Backbone:
């Protein structure tokens, strides 16, 4: 189970609207200066994701919840998104190469296969996203914000 903490925005009729912060992929690595992923993370905007999750327990805005999603569903969705364009690229490129025996035909077939694989993944993902095992679930619920109190002791109060 892959876990992530989220903040509740609202709760209505058994559905919680939660917000997850996007974490940068690298912040603690020792090779930050020469990392290409770090440079790419700086280019894109840091956004948050809003997700509706079923929850029977009443929640309040600002409350923290731990979300979980099964590894198998995450891996299968990643396989769909990444492998279908790749398989389309190689398969249609090879078919065009064997049919027309020209490199330009193989290139055109590869482009068409990659686009076709992308469109296939795009068409299948909404249908697969409705499966219950592909939905995030609330694993644990933190205390509401008004129940948390922090007392800071200063040196003046100590004997």
Residues:
């Amino acid at each position: 189970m892959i876990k992530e903490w989220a903040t509740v925005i609202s709760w209505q009729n058994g559905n919680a609207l939660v917000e997850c912060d996007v974490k940068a992929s690298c912040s603690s690595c020792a090779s930050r200066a020469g990392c290409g992923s770090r440079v790419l993370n700086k280019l894109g905007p840091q956004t948050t994701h809003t997700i509706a999750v079923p929850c029977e327990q009443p929640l309040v805005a600002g409350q923290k919840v731990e979300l979980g999603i099964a590894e198998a569903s995450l891996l299968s969705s990643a396989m769909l998104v990444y492998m279908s364009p790749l398989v389309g690229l190689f398969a249609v490129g090879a078919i065009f190469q064997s049919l027309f025996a020209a490199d330009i035909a193989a290139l055109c077939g590869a482009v068409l296969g990659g686009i076709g694989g992308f469109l296939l993944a795009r068409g299948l993902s909404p249908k697969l996203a409705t499966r219950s095992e592909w939905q995030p679930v609330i694993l644990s619920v933190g205390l509401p914000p008004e129940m948390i109190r922090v007392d800071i002791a200063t040196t003046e109060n100590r004997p």
